[in-house]
Design goal:
The chain has 405 residues and is mostly helical. The chain has 13 helices and no strands. Helix 2 runs antiparallel to helix 12 and helix 8 runs antiparallel to helix 9. The two termini are 19 Å apart. InterPro entries: MFS, MFS_dom, MFS_trans_sf. Keywords: Membrane, Transmembrane, Transmembrane helix. It comes from Marinomonas colpomeniae.
């Protein structure tokens, strides 16, 4: 079992570090494309709508693929699943760079480029959809219940770090060439796959050759918490979407200044979320009840700050509060899920959770942007209601249904 960090053996530390590095790399692969693809797509003659469909296709494929990875992980093992996913990541990102380079050199038409990249994005999503559930189930299997929330928090923080680093890597590496980020990030993913292959061993996996009984997700006690996962990710991506609108409208900024101020706001939210998940939750070994109650309470306070603090400093304060709330809430919800299912159901649970999070990520921007069109404060009222709903459902499950955490 994994005990506090001071007592973890060196091979165990290395295994955990490599797997968390894989999650950070997945975050980079998911986010750098938002910075790299639009300017290249315009350069080769793709319309903005078609560029957006490339990203949407990958997101939709991820939602569907993640649902099915649970059974695959049970059959082939957690480490093999990570290796396959990271290898698929490396190959598809590298080939995407090759295709885009050919398009920039006018060796490929815009139409040919669009369909080739479309297929590569779908294959990329098929592969990486298995990485998060594989890593999560591995770490849970090698962690005792007392330290589970700390482990889940580090999983969320690692992915968040990657999401921050992705655009930064794209911006810095593009100085070497427009397609340079694709090759370098592909190399990074390939190295991660090789390192996992040689240094990470999973002695606790029991291969399931026979398909286990199907899980009825509508009757399993974990279903309310899967819905909570969707709402939390929907909130995060939704706030990220409307923050540019809010800052530009509230402070009457031009596009350049608004972009800069939005960047600071996003960084504030991410830094507070990572701080909570990497330091506070592991340090104090917070339990599910504390995490969910603290997360929803701080999240509600953040929505009130968005509504009533009109200065830019107020917006930064609200973003910091929101990041803090998410930093508590995310590991609390996922830890609760893992405590409500049996050990042989963990991989299916993790894959379903990844799928639900992908659904939340897809719905968040369009949902909150639509609410913003009704009124500037409407999205924050909706988010506050959603957070209070999460707290109410959690309280009901605990008190009326007898859920124990």
């Amino acid at each position: 079992m994994i005990t506090p960090d001071n007592y973890i053996s060196l091979p165990e530390r290395l295994s955990r570090g490599l797997l968390l590095f894989c999650l950070a790399a997945v975050g980079i692969g998911q986010s750098f494309i938002f910075t790299s693809l639009p300017p290249i797509g315009r350069e080769i003659g793709l319309a903005d709508v078609r560029i957006s469909t490339l990203i949407t296709a990958g997101a939709a494929t991820f939602v569907v693929a993640a649902f099915f990875w649970g059974g695959i992980i049970n059959r082939i093992g957690r480490i093999r699943s990570v290796i396959i996913g990271m290898s698929c990541y490396a190959v598809t990102i590298g080939l995407t760079g090759v295709v885009l380079h050919g398009a920039l050199a006018r060796d490929l038409s815009a139409e040919q480029t669009y369909y080739l990249v479309f297929v590569l994005r779908m294959v990329f999503a098929l592969g990486i959809a298995g990485i998060l559930p594989s890593v999560q189930t591995f770490l849970i299997a090698h962690t005792d219940i007392k330290h589970r929330s700390a482990t889940i928090a580090k999983i969320g923080a690692s992915f968040s770090i990657g999401m921050i680093l992705g655009p930064a890597c794209a911006s810095l590496l593009s100085g070497l060439g427009l397609t340079a980020p694709f090759y370098i990030i592909a190399f990074l993913a390939g190295c991660a796959a090789i390192l996992v292959m040689f240094f990470v061993k999973d002695k606790k996996h029991v291969r399931q050759l026979e398909k286990p009984p199907a899980i009825n997700w509508f009757k399993e006690p974990v279903m309310p918490f899967l819905g909570m996962s969707t709402l939390v990710i929907l909130s995060i991506t939704g706030v990220q979407q409307i923050m540019a609108f809010l800052i530009q409208d509230r402070f009457h900024l031009d596009v350049s200044e608004a972009t800069k101020q939005v960047g600071y706001a996003m960084m504030t939210m991410s830094c507070f979320s990572i701080l909570v998940q990497m330091i506070l939750v592991p340090r104090f070994q917070l339990g599910v009840i504390t995490l969910i109650v603290a997360g929803t309470s701080i999240g509600v306070s953040a929505q009130l700050a968005f509504m009533f603090l009109d200065s830019y400093v107020g917006v930064l304060f609200a973003m910091g509060l929101f990041g803090t709330g998410v930093g508590f809430l995310f590991p609390g919800i996922v830890t609760a899920q893992t405590l409500l299912v049996k050990d042989d159901q963990q991989s299916r649970l993790a894959s379903m959770n990844a799928s639900m999070q992908g659904l939340g990520a897809a719905l968040g921007p369009v949902t909150l942007a639509s609410l913003y069109q009704i009124g500037q404060l409407v999205p924050f009222l909706a988010l506050m209601s959603g957070l209070l709903f999460i707290l109410a459902i959690f309280s009901y499950c605990k008190s009326k249904l007898g859920y124990t955490f």
